[in-house]
Structures are given as structure tokens and as C-alpha cells.
Specification:
Strand content: 15-25%
CATH class of the largest domain: Alpha Beta
CATH architecture of the largest domain: 3-Layer(aba) Sandwich
Radius of gyration: 19 Å
CATH topology of the largest domain: Rossmann fold
Helix content: 25-40%
CATH superfamily of the largest domain: Alpha/Beta hydrolase fold, catalytic domain
Number of domains: 2
Shape: globular
Order of helices and strands: EEEEHEHEHHHHHEHEHH
Number of strands: 8
Amino acid sequence: MSRQPGQCITLIPSVTLDCGETVSGIPIVYETWGWDPSGKKPVVLLIHALTGSSHAKSTPEDSTPGWWEPFIGAELALDPEKVAIISPNLPGSCYGSWVPDVKSEIRLTIADMARILEELCLMLGISSLKAVVGGSLGGMVAHQIVADQRILIEKTVLLSCGAKQSAWAKAWGHLGLTAMENAINPLVGLSLARQIAMLSYRTPFDFGSKDEESRTVQHYLYYQGTKFLNRFNNWSYELLVRAMDTHHVSQKVSTTRALIVGNLQDLLYPIADQKAQTELFDHVSYFEFDSDKGHDAFLVDHEILNPVIHSFLAD
């Protein structure tokens, strides 16, 4: 997909990936809110989840609501009046940043993504961050950046993820990729992968509201799978799912304060994942909540999470 209005792009000169290959001229697309060219305002790096993009909030150039729209604004989780927010599109995603050629041997890892975003920050003259924030896949990358400590990071907010990709989460990804591999029509395969993933993102109670006389749950899933085809592609989906399977951070962090957030009804990353993650930080706050939105709660339960994140970052 092409770059959209309001997006910026920076070329990373070169990065050596975990596979041993050095890649040059890596384009990374990003968007900013409250950006301060003088560099005096503290910077927050915001990282999207599996199918997100750099468009976290609407802009004058693009009024489309962003994936974290209710969390960015005055006195919300991220206040552009107080911090400069930069939201990059992850490498491997299909929203403008670098995607390895499908014919290449390159398979990205979470550590690769973190390394590239670290280089992006350095290219933009950012040597320290007020915070790095991410949920799900974005939380994995954020945790890896904090563990790398190539950039001084005061705080981190990690939502709905763990310190490593569990066998349970890998199994869900495997089902989607298997559907893609075995479908005669690639579009049917991608649609089915999305429908499978939706089962892990929500809860039985939430699905009950989608099974009515006027709209059955089967129609809901079919709609979600079909809609997904208009904004994603098979190769990016495979790259990102396989990257998540590589996630494993084991080193303890002593210099960055962490806020770990988990939902008691998250079926994909159960609360035990977040509790285990807290053990890797010397300075950590932990918040759990109960939402029938399941794994997707970190994207939609803004009334619960805004004050918690805002308070942590303001402290």
C-alpha cells in the first residue's frame, strides 16, 4: 500500500538482521502528533499491533480515525500538548514501511523490528524517550527495545502481551497460516486466517452479542474476513505472525519503569503472561482489569485505561 497524506518517511542506511543479512536503504513510514522540531518536548514511541499502521490518530491531512484514536488527546493516555508522539509502521507491515521481498530468504524477528525502530529514533535525533508504548505485537517490540537499552528510556507501557510468545499463542497463529497455505485461493486463505484470529481476540460473551436473527455469528466472521482483504495482504500477515513466534525476552531491566497491563478475559495472552512479565523489571507497576472485549480490550476500553496510563506517564 502507498504512503498516505500526513505520513513521513525516513530511510535507515543499513541494519544487520538476525538471519545475518545486512539490508540497506530501509524505508520506515511514521506519523507524529505534538511534534517539536526543537527536540525540547519529551518523546513517546507508540507501536501498533499485528494489523495496525502508523495512523494511530486522525490528522488534518487524514481525518480517518486512528487505531488508538480515543487514547490520544488532551489529558488522555498520550497528550500531544505535553509529549511528542511518533508512531511508526513496523517493517513487514503493508502500510508503507519496508517489506522483505517474498522471493528472499528473509524472515523478520521481533528483535529485527526493535533494531530498525531504534535506528529510526537515532536517525531522527532521538537519543532518549519519555516512554515506549505498545500492545500485543507492539508490546513485544516495545519490550525488546527496552531490553536492548540502545536508547535511554524512562518508562514503558506494555499492554496485553508477555515476555515471550507462548505455545498457546503460537498455536493460534499456526492455524491461520495453515489456512493460508492450504487454500486454493489466497484471498480465501487470508480471510479464513482473519476469522480464526477473531476467535482469539474476543470472548464467548462478546460473540453472543453478534449472533442475532438479523445477523448471525457466521455472517459476522465472514464480514470480518472479507473486510480484511481490503486492507492487508498474505505476505505481510505471514511475516508478522512468524515474527511474533520469535519473541522471547529474558534479561532483567533495571533502568526503565514499566507499567504492565492485562485483561482477565484475554484468551490469547492470559493474565499469567503479564504477571510473569513483571518479573523482568526492577521498577514495575501492574494493572489488571476485567473486560469481555478480550484481547482487543487494549484497543477499545479507553474509559478504563486512559486514566491509568495517563497517571503512570505523568508521575
